[in-house]
Please model this.
Amino acid sequence: MTAKILDGNAFSAKVREGLAVRAAALKAAGVTPCLAVILVGDDAASAVYVRNKVAACEKAGMRSLKFVYPSDIEPAVVFAKIAELNADPGVHGILVQLPLPKRFDSDAVLEAISPEKDVDGFHAENVGALVQGNPRFIPCTPYGVMEMLKSEGVKLAGAEAVIVGRSNIVGKPMAMLLLAESCTVTVCHSRTADLAFHTRRADILIAAVGRAKMITGDMIKPGAAVIDVGINRQADGKLCGDVDFESAKEVAGLITPVPGGVGPMTITMLLANTLESAERVAAERQPEKAHK
Ligand code: GUN
Model:
């Protein structure tokens, strides 16, 4: 059996078309959705991600603001910029690209962003809301994964879902979202005693560890939906995921490639969160039109 390969670029383009229509409607009503992105330092991958995020905004008819600081900038300057953006009614989403230089207290920076504009969903208040099953902003990558699973009609209720990786950005919020859909969720990590024992039981396998090709075909249940969140650069410069695609696709029922799988969906859901934030602002301004 060979797995169905899920084309994240095509799915993403379809979702973004719908977002652009909503953005245009909002713009016509006088509110242009606006995302502000802050980048500190000269990490090459982060610079590419930020460039892609800004370009995607423009293409979807949204505004974007970009603030780039050298890695030796005083944290106070960044905090002051966040405070200014928090107070600006024309800004609907604020994103600080991670990782920040080591001198920064990343948690303190994320907490400084207004929870109403925290389109990454990383603020403690928004993490708490997600855990309680009442999310305000869903972190973009897990949000994109859920949209892909749902669009493919993958059975969620009662399914065994195994996540490899326990990061705040992917693993933990992913677990909450799958739990909310009534999956039985297992979270594995670097200290898991027998990783293959767990992965072989997975109807839905989410790989988010950041180790090139560590999930091989023999670790996958036949017919499983395999979602590869990893982006690793190989010695030859090419990108690969956390899943060994060649061996995995012979066993899985559905699989996402790297690149061209989950990656484009992360930016798409960032646009969706920014748009939702702007729609909330517009509805508050014109309560009589909110139910139209
Ligand atoms: N770095 C890697 N992924 C992300 C993300 O989703 N948001 C932010 N802000 N930084 C990241």
User: Anything to note?
Assistant: Residues 95-98, 120, 140-141, 169, 266 surround guanine (CB under 6 Å). The first helix runs from residue 8 to 28. Residues 72 and 260 are 34 Å apart (CA to CA). The chain is about 40% helix and 15% strand.
